[in-house]
Amino acid sequence: MRILLTGANGYIGMRLLPVLVEASHDITCVVRDRKRFQPAPYLFHKISIIEFDFLNPENAVLNFNNKQFDVAYYLIHSLGDTSTTLKEYEKRSAGCFVLVSKLTRVKQIIYLSGICNADKMSKHLSSRKAVKDVIMQSEIAYTIFEAGIIVGSGSVSFEIIRDLTEKLPLMIVPRWLNSRCQPIAIRNVINYLHLSLLNEGTFFKTFEIGGPDILTYKKMLQEFAAVRNYKRYIISLPISFPKLSSYWLYMATSANISIAKQLVHSMKGDVICKECTIRDIIPQDLIPYREAIKMAFERIEQNMVISSWTDAASSSLSSLDISQYIEVPVNGCYVDRRWIEIDKENVKVVSGRFFGIGGDQGWYYADRLWRIRGVLDKILGGVGIGRGRRSKVDIQPGDALDFWRVLLADHKNNRLLLFAEMKLPGEAWLEFSIVQNENRCILKQTATFRPRGILGRNYWYSMLPFHFFIFRNMLKRIAGKQ
To answer: How far apart are CA 125 and CA 345, in angstroms?
Structure first.
């Protein structure tokens, strides 16, 4: 079967792709930036890739003319975008997708959305509803799934619940945590998306999908703590204070402020399925919430997390274009360049250290100062250091790494390049590499900062004392010399 997979480098797309490939389908993946698309190596020779932005419909004919598909998945989301034009951007993107579907004679469109059955919806869910309306008016057979909280390693809901439970022994929570929801395991979601392929029983229908449990958000936190053997105390207040709740989520978790606001607005009411007809059309064993948590941690412990919401920025309608930053500038920049000689037989060990930097491993020196910098970044409205890393052993371009973004992870040539996503009066890069000749082997560490105005220059000079101790000792520890 010929399948068009949009949002292929998003959280859901990266989980669905190997399932479709293993079922021997002919897959064409659509991504905005192929440099940020890093599926498992065994998948590359089995798929085709088209680089295309659905906000630019004028290029649709050029990219999709003379192509034909049986089914097209629409998995493009922009949770972090809270601008007043969000709905218009979403409608424009969905309209372009419908145009592409008609150009390529698609027989079925499959779309994953959020549950939109409430009388009052957040901006985020309203934009999802707008996309749904565009697809339903396309005159192409559609299958629309609406899900609430998706439980899986790397999902935004799972990681926020994990942050709250692991970091806060005592939580004083607002009234909206007593709202009910119906979480569903990522495995069940992928099964629905896969098994609906050209399934005529799903044509021209919208299905609400959820797991077997209906829980309050407070109960979800308690169940998560029980699975992890944490003793947690949760006190509910009779008031909502949504604005303060958004900042509470933002400071306590890895969510940015835009996502925190969207989540709080989406959770003020019940998010449960009002119909379950899909269970008769595509029967499967629905995984209970506790079991879904256990399965997620099994993947984490085995370093098998395929995708994370923090790495899926490229599926947003306003993502960072990494290609603009992969060439480190020279002119107008301040540079802290250090090197140390290492033994040739230790190259793999040393490169393994800098490829494993961040997350639980930390930064090899002054981790407390790195954490303080992360807290300050959160206060200033940045991403903070709590995003961690997708995998302890694997790192790919496009991955989030604490408050950095991986631009280049060249294992063959032993080079790692990071771009700072923290709040700065300028732009910053951090690079590790190993160079060698017949006689010597050198570990190089280069911090580059391109200041923005006088504030940026003053920032660089004020940080020099910290750089002297942190970068010098970090380099020594990575080299195994301290």
So the answer is: 55
CA-wise closest residue to 7 among 131, 116, 180, 166: 131
Alpha-carbon distance of 66 to 105, in angstroms, equals: 10
User: What is the Cβ-side half-sphere exposure of residue 209, based on CA atoms within 13 angstroms?
Assistant: 35
- Tell me, what amino acid is at 392? K
What is the distance between the alpha carbons of residues 100 and 36, in angstroms, rounded to a whole number? 23
* DSSP string computed for 89-120: HHHHHHHHHHHHHHHTT-SEEEEEEE---SSS
Phi, psi values for residue 78, rounded to 5°: -140, 65
Comparing CA positions, the residue from 351, 364, 471 lying closest to residue 416 is 351
Angle 106-108-111 from CA coordinates, rounded to 5°: 115
Return the half-sphere exposure (C-beta side, CA atoms, 13 A cut-off) of residue 134: 23
Q: Copy the structure tokens of residue 306.
A: 């395929």
**Series of mean pLDDT values for 10-residue runs along the chain (482 residues):** 92 91 94 80 88 87 90 80 67 92 96 79 76 93 93 82 85 82 94 96 96 92 91 82 70 68 69 91 95 85 55 43 62 89 92 92 91 87 82 84 89 91 90 88 93 89 91 94 80
Question: What gap in Å lies between CA 205 and CA 142, rounded to an integer?
Answer: 7
Q: In one letter, which amino acid is 128? A: R
pTM for the full predicted model: 0.73
292, 293, 296, 300 alpha-carbon torsion, rounded to 10°: -170
Kindly state the DSSP code that residue 288 receives in the 8-state scheme: P
Alpha carbons within 13 angstroms on the beta-carbon side of residue 342 total: 26
The residue to which tokens 């919401």 are assigned: 309
Closest CA to 145 of 121, 113, 116, 117: 113
Q: Are 481 and 339 in contact (CB under 8 A)?
A: no
Nearest-angstrom CA–CA distance, 168 and 379: 18
CA dist list (Å): 429 to 20, 101, 341: 37, 40, 22
